[in-house]
Amino acid sequence: ANFGVIFVRFKDKSERRRSVQDIVLGPGGVQQRFFGEVEGAISLANLPKAIEISFRDSPFELILQNQDLAALNRVAQDIANKIRGMNNLRNVNVSFEVNKPELRVSIDRSRAATLGVSIEDISRTMQILFGGLDLSRIKVGGKEYYVMAQLERLSRLTPQDLDRIFVRNNKSEMIQLSSVVTRTQGAAPNAINHYGRLRSASITASPGAVPIGTVVKEVEEMLARDLPAGTLYAWGGDAKNLQDASTEVWWVLGLAAVIVYMTLAAQFESLVHPLTVMLALPLAAIGAFGLLWLLDLGGKVGLYPPIPAMNINLFSQIGLVLLIGLVTKNSILLVEYANQQVAKGLGSHQAMIQAGLVRLRPILMTAFSTIAGILPIAIGFGAGAESRRPMGVAVVGGMLTSTFLTLFVIPVAYTLFSDLAARFHRKPATAPANLEQVPGK
Predict the structure, then answer these.
(1) Is 394 helix (H, G, I), strand (E, B) or coil?
(2) Superfamily for 270-423?
């Protein structure tokens, strides 16, 4: 099929009152107005992504797999109808359509045997006259051309053309081809696509302003209930890109935590105190996830206009990676100063109290300066702010909870780990006082 793209550039955000999502995906927006505008064509409005992979990718693409074409068509239409009944998806289209006229020719084996016509001769005749046979290649003027044997186009347009074709039997008699075959007219798929070496059908749709992750979860719940046995499914388009990117970010998150732990272990020359420092990470996760959830919930219940992308997406995951480096510094300030006091002879309990008194002000100053720097991203200023906002919200939420909870959790964990380390620490044995030294010979 032919494919065309029209790019539309919006005015600056200061010159318009509506957001890009509202103009394109909202009620009466570009997507609703132009879907089905051209007869025989499908038009979809697609917002450029901050991390663009391919503008051909559909926002939502579900790939169904089944080797049986009839079952594949039936399941694809059934699943597409169920998707059309969902509120979060619109403009549903199925790529697999059985609407191409087809003439099926079947060999009557008993009739062919009676007339002395071999199956091989019938098949070869059909292949050569209708499909074509590659005979040779010739070169003319430096260019190579294929030599094909095939009926001219006007002689193979209608089913009745079979009546004018003859095949030779074992007695060298010419037998009319239509007398040894049966013809049936039907419909065939417009195209047979494969995904993962299996025949597949794609269902595409537009999720509107709803996050693609929310739509994928809703559809997967439906597939778990209604997808028949023998049919597999996979995700394509933005849904697949989101899953791939999310998996990679979680690996990066884990790798960053390991690198931070190894660095702290080398600095503290201990395997215990880095664990104390890294307890700030789950405290930050509480704030990051919590603030995203609260902002999303407030928009859903109508406290304010819905804020898009307030969920776990690629940008919020990038914010979590940033938090690994930002929130551990508060714990480092406490633990490092407490270690200095322990080296001077103070107990772990008194050392941590002293660290809290001395380091409280620097901790609050650095935390609030970081929050102030990230706040413009969380609020959302300038073009493309809707995409960056989840990253800022995750960082702000994580910094708020980790800053205050660190002041309570880290001192407790430090004293607990220090007491456990002291309990299992073995002191070197001393020689008995009454043991006499034997002079060497």
Answers:
(1) helix
(2) Multidrug efflux transporter AcrB transmembrane domain (1.20.1640.10)
CA angle 398, 402, 405 (to 5 degrees): 140
Q: Please list the residues that pair with 195 across neighbouring strands.
A: 198
Beta-carbon-side half-sphere exposure of residue 382 (alpha carbons within 13 Å): 5
- As a whole number of angstroms, the distance between CA 272 and CA 254 comes to 19
How far apart, in whole angstroms, are the C-alpha atoms of residue 214 and residue 207?
A: 9
| Tens of pLDDT, residues 345-389 | 888 889 999 998 999 999 999 999 999 999 988 887 766 677 788
Tokens linked to 249:
């970010």
**Residue (of 87, 83, 12, 7) closest to 47 by Cα position:** 7
Strands (E), 207-294: 232-236
Tokens encoding 123: 């098949």
- 261-273 pLDDT, tens per residue? 899 888 888 888 8
pLDDT of residue 55: 47
DSSP per position, 11-55: PPGGG-SS-HHHHHHSTTSHHHHHTT-STT------PPPSS-S-T
Q: In this structure, are strands 133-140 and 193-195 parallel, antiparallel, or unpaired?
A: unpaired
Burial status of residue 342 (CB atoms within 10 A of its CB: 0-12, 13-18, 19 or more): middle
Phi, psi (deg, nearest 5) at residue 7: -95, 130
Specify the fold of 13-97+192-240.
Alpha-Beta Plaits (3.30.70)
* Nearest to 214, CA basis, from 246, 239, 245: 239
Name residues whose C-beta falls within 8 Å of residue 301's C-beta, 6 or more positions apart in sequence: none
Query: Alpha-carbon distance 304 to 222, whole Å?
Result: 30
100-187 is a CATH 3.40.50.300 domain: no
Q: What is the helix (H) or strand (E) element at residue 62, kind and residue range?
A: strand 60-65
Element (H, E) at 243: helix 237-268
Using CA atoms, how far residue 231 sits from 6, 84, 107, 419, in Å, is 36, 20, 32, 58
Mark residue 117 as left, alpha or beta (left: phi above 0; alpha: psi -120 to 50; beta: remaining).
beta
**Which residues have CB under 8 Å from 104's CB, separation 6+?**
183, 184, 185, 186
The pLDDT assigned to 64 comes to: 92
Measured CA to CA, the distance from residue 193 to residue 64 in angstroms comes to 11
More confident residue, 44 or 174: 174
What are the C-alpha distances in Å from 419 to residues 272, 357, 425, 436? 11, 21, 10, 37
